[in-house]
Amino acid sequence: MSAATSPSFSFSRIFAMVMRHWYLLRSSWPRLLELIYWPLVQMVMWGFLQSFMAQQTGALAMAAGTFLAAVLLWDILFRGQLGFSFSFLEEMWSRNLANLMISPLRPIEFVLSMITMSVIRLFIGVVPVTFLAMFFFGFNFWGLGIALGAFFANLLLTSWAIGLLCAGLVLRNGLGAEGLTWSIMFLFLPLTCVYYPVATLPVWLQPISWTLPPTAVFEGMRALVLENVFRADLMLWALGLNIVWIALAGWGFMKLMHSSKRMGSLLSVGE
Length: 271
Fold this sequence. Notes:
Blueprint: H1 11-26, H2 29-54, H3 59-64, H4 67-93, H5 97-101, H6 107-137, H7 146-173, H8 179-191, H9 206-209, H10 213-227, H11 232-263
Helix pairs in contact: 1-6, 2-4, 2-6, 4-6, 4-7, 4-8, 4-10, 7-8, 7-10, 7-11, 10-11
């Protein structure tokens, strides 16, 4: 079926793309190992640090309770973006992107397939680590309750927005921009206040921090763990920002994709 006569939207095409990447993932044990390796290393390192700090007194012991929660939430954000970007980069590395662009596959279907693989990769990598955290350090991540759903959804939306923008930049500039997919999230690590309150930042930097959706999530996590209060206002703020971020990232991705077609860079993506 040609692109001109194919349906404007097809779940079967999304499913086909997801299955392509799922078969690729399950047939490679190094890929599967990598999904869980770094979350596990971080959980163990920060778990021992939390155990040490919990033995101290005062504010230090109180702050220790937030470390494992922060690490696991950060992994949702980081691994969500990497899971999205990996599916895109697999097409770049295999020089298959140009073939996909001339197939009936629509850009929205391509994006939705990457989002689906992001969730699959995230569950494979992070969920087992949450149970190991419970076993080794007695930290029940799932004990955050209904708030965990709000944290999870907002962090995933942010990760997809960033992944979409990175995909557009790599699409337009080639694999020379691949490093962005690995490093860009670390720019957000200090600004989103993963391990400390926003008030710790310089006054002039705090308004910038509040424009980043994960900042509200990590502030909400600290409020829940330390004060046992669920801050719905922070979750709504993060959701509103995420809607803006997703819209801007989608617009940017389409612009960059059209630019790559005009410049002919799709045919040299492997260079």
